[in-house]
Amino acid sequence: MKYQTIVKRKMGTISLIVILASICVATSFSVYDYINESRRLKSYFDEMTVPISKRLASSLQRPLWFMDKKIIPKLIELEAMEKSLYAVVIRDAEKQTVLFARKRDKNWKIIECDGKISGDFIVKNEDIMYEGELLGVVDIYFTTRFIEELLKNLTIDILIKISVMSFCLVAILSVVLKFYLVKPVSEVIRGLKDIAEGEGDLTRRLEIKTKDEIGVLADCFNLFIEKLRIIISQIAQNTNKLSMSSEELALLSTQMAFSVKEMNAKAETVASASREVSANVDSMASTAEQSSVSVSNIASMTEEMSSAFTQVSGLARKTADNVKQVAESGEDMSLEINQFATSLEEMTASLNEIAKNTAQASRISQNANQRTREVHVKMSALVAASKQIGKIIRIIKDIADQTNMLALNATIEAAGAGDAGKGFGVVASEVKELARQSANATDEISDQIEHIQKRTDEAVKAMEDIGKIINEITAINEMIASSVEEQTVTANEISKSVSNNAVIVKNVAKNANESAILVGEIAKSTNETSEMAKNVAQNVDELARGTRNVAKSSSDAAGGVQDISRNIQDISMASKSTAEDTSKTDLSSKKLSQMAVELSEIVKKFKL
């Protein structure tokens, strides 16, 4: 019952996987069809709305031009035969006033409206033109309601098809799995159960003769049982042989353990003697080795001392050369310092000349500043005089104006006197002309005076600026003079210091030459010492080689004795290990005998 439940559960799992896979495939194809149909309907909708919009705009040209209120509603109703058209709103050219408006009611009938359309619609706008003039604009509202209904119906059809297909697939799979999978597997399980419950009956076989996978499984299982029967038979035959061999192995392990104990005792005696000999030889070898190391250290120290003397000699020679170079550099430096002192003296003379010129420039600047102040005073007086002249010119101009008025009055009086006043009129005219010329002259003089005043003011400002600049130049000259004096003092001090340094450098060069001679003598002495150290090092090397030969011979002898000792110790350890292995072998042989008995009991449970 338990195995049938497992088979049914597996069958249900397989059925579910197949159904889900089929549903996924069918759903994928259905979704693909749905997307294609949706695209096709939307494309058809777009292609349908454009011609309707253009056709309606073209049809409304003449009726809107003549404002034919009977034809326009009929044209709208004619285009409303397309159910996707929801509303039509016609506005004037400014898109402000609604001329005509129609929409659908709940029953999808065309009714008149105020032009306010709310909702989710696709709107097409077309201009209504007649003979090149914009008459108005038509807004056409299309709804996707019918396309959405078609897509909804398509979705329902797809779901129904998938449900029917799933139901049919479940029924077919149930029948197929029951007759082609569940029934043969149940027979296999029943046969295996009989074999398992028969306490090792290897003579039972599965009686399934089908040519499918279940039949192949049954044949393979029968072949496996046959091979297992043969193996168990062979194990039963070998179990008796194993039992006899384990008894013989136990006897041999007992004899081997006794022999190993005797060999171990003799090996211990030889090992102790070899250890004493090895200790004596090791002591002699270590003494010789220490002597060799000491002699080698002396030789190496002698060689290092010789090398150090050689390096000291080389360094002494280099030091002598460097000291000579220092002496030569000191002499060159002394010459350069003397030249530098000469240049400083020339620079001091130049600075003194600059100081004199700066003082002269300062005096000239002060004189120029004094002259500038005098010119400024005179220009100020000139400005005051020009202003006074301007006042006089204004008075002259007033007199000319009054003279002109008197001449005009005289002319008027002469004209009133007739012939008697002609002579007086001529005089009055000349006086008037003179007054006019005087007025013109005063105007010109006034302009020139103003021009002179402007130029004078500019000159005064320029003189003030020049005075400031001269003051700055004077201050700069004073600063230059002060700096030149300081530089002159500093240059004199530097010249004195340079002269002193020249004397010191000469003394240094002299001392350097003497040091070079002494360092050369030190180098010669160091070379002689180095040669003596090399001879000592050679003699010590010969002594070290002899000592190393003695140490090597002692080491070889010690190594031979140690090898003998190690070999004997290895033999002793091997004998101990052999004794332990013999004990383990004895124990293993007993366990093997016990296992042979148990295996024999297990084999007897099988029916062969």
From TrEMBL:
InterPro entries xref list: HAMP_dom, MCPsignal_dom, T_SNARE_dom
PROSITE patterns for the chain: CHEMOTAXIS_TRANSDUC_2, HAMP, T_SNARE
PANTHER family per the UniProt record, alphabetical: LYSOZYME-LIKE PROTEIN-RELATED, METHYL-ACCEPTING CHEMOTAXIS PROTEIN MCPB
Cellular component terms (Gene Ontology): plasma membrane
Membrane spanning stretches: 12-35
This protein's record includes keyword Membrane: yes
Organism: Desulfonema magnum
Pfam families: HAMP, MCPsignal
Domain HAMP as annotated: residue spans: 179-233
Family statement: Belongs to the methyl-accepting chemotaxis (MCP) protein family.
Residue ranges annotated for the T-SNARE coiled-coil homology domain, each copy included: 453-515
GO BP annotations listed: signal transduction
Coiled-coil residues: none
Annotated membrane topology: Multi-pass membrane protein
Stretches assigned to the Methyl-accepting transducer domain: 308-544
Protein name, as recorded: Methyl-accepting chemotaxis protein signailing-domain containing protein, HAMP domain-containing
Keywords for the protein's UniProt record, in alphabetical order: Cell inner membrane, Cell membrane, Membrane, Transducer, Transmembrane, Transmembrane helix
Main localization, broad class: membrane
Protein localization: Cell inner membrane
